[in-house]
Write a structure and sequence with these properties.
Helix content: 25-40%
Number of helices: 4
Largest sheet: 5 strands, antiparallel
Strand order of the largest sheet: 2-3-1-4-5
Structural class: alpha+beta
Length: 163
Amino acid sequence: MNNLTHFDPAGQAHMVDVGTKPISHRVAVAEGRIAMLPETAARIRAGDHRKGDVLGVARIAGIMGAKRTGELIPLCHPIGLSRVALELEAGADQVRVQATCEVQGQTGVEMEALTAVSVALLTIYDMCKAVDRGMRIEGVRLLEKHGGRSGSWFAQPQVGEER
């Protein structure tokens, strides 16, 4: 395991200097899901939720969240994203969200992808909480990252998951 880079030799938190790192194409993919009552998922799938298009609003919220990550996470660099894409899939009793973020830059986009997923899931909760307060946000994780000095990384499949 590498040393934690957000601490200086005295143990104080600091922002990592990426100024001398080469610019490279970087990609990160993250996922998460929100578990809910089947009736709530059915409303989302049918598109007849009284608050409107839940998946469409969550997609835009996720994109906005990715763009604001540097403002939300204290030591995260603000970066110029070149792409943010969210896929939302409403199942029988959950909605799965996957975000892909890309940049030509000196630092990775893992935090942006994770933030996009989290904000999209929180938006679904907000839009549906009046009918289902027991929803659970679960499994937010990085699936893969590419680029930079460390190259590519892939999450290990979870039990019952195909990759």
